[in-house]
Specification:
ligase; binds glutamine; nine-stranded mixed beta sheet; hydrolase; peptidoglycan synthesis; EC 3.5.1.2; cell wall biogenesis/degradation; globular; alpha/beta; about 30% strand
């Protein structure tokens, strides 16, 4: 942690925040405060520089045009890439995930460069849009319970050698490549297609981000009964569908 306060940066809420992705910021803040950590939150609009001194950066999803604008501005600004180089934790959702990769197809049908912070490439799927509930098992090395979420994307994301799948789907499309992978991660950079918001549905992922920031194996437990009940309900609903 760079200071005694945990610095949480929400990147481009004006462009990238669909399907309740704002909730991810609220959950990280809450989970940190429940452990007695002081949190300083910065919402960085797309006309502002991205500070490089954050501990955790959250990036949400977006429609195709805002996604292109966000990629252009993030490339020009350079702050997010510098923060990642400094070892900051980046957690990205859907359009944000695609932007962290090498490239994606933009709203004009052209290849748009991403930030190259994750070894993934996204193309536009030619089939039906991937929409619906997702159930997935998160990479075992991260020691997290099953992931539940909601996906809504046309993009399909292929992982390179330098990225590991974040999860493997039991239900839903995830990366849409047909190989069962969902999202990607490498070091302290994470990407997922899960909305929901994903951290409200899976707060143990927020705890993972906090553990990585603090460089600790475990955090003091908090009452997760409500979240566990929600996960069980969503898993049952998804399996019944
Ligand atoms: N525009 C992107 C796609 O459709 C991302 C959508 C999203 O963030 N929900 O693939």
């Amino acid at each position: 942690m760079s200071t005694s306060q945990l610095r949480v940066i929400w990147v481009y809420p004006d462009l990238l925040s669909t399907y309740g992705d704002q909730g991810n910021v609220l959950v990280v803040e809450r989970r940190a405060r429940q452990r007695g950590l002081a949190v300083e939150r910065h919402d960085v609009r797309s006309d502002q520089p991205v500070p490089t001194s954050g501990d955790i950066y959250l990036i949400g999803g977006g429609e195709d045009r805002p996604q292109r604008l966000a990629a252009e501005r993030l490339r020009r600004d350079g702050g997010l890439a510098r923060a990642a180089d400094n070892g900051a934790i980046l957690f990205s959702v859907c359009a944000g995930y695609q932007i962290l990769g090498h490239e994606f197809i933009n709203d004009l049908g052209r290849r748009e460069p991403g930030l190259g912070l994750l070894d993934v490439v996204s193309v536009r799927g030619t089939g039906e849009r991937c929409v619906g509930d997702v159930l997935a098992d998160i990479d075992g090395s991260l020691r997290l319970p099953p992931l539940t979420g909601f996906e809504n994307h046309q993009g399909i994301t292929q992982l390179g050698q330098g990225a590991r799948p974040f999860a493997r789907v039991r239900l839903g499309n995830g990366n849409g490549t047909g190989d069962g992978t969902e999202g990607a991660w490498s070091g302290t950079v994470f990407g997922t297609y899960m909305h929901g918001p994903v951290l409200a549905r899976n707060p143990q992922i927020a705890d993972l981000l906090l553990r990585l920031t603090l460089d600790v194996e475990a955090l003091p437990p908090v009452d997760d009964r409500w979240y566990d009940a929600l996960r069980a309900e969503r898993m049952a609903a998804a399996q019944a569908a």
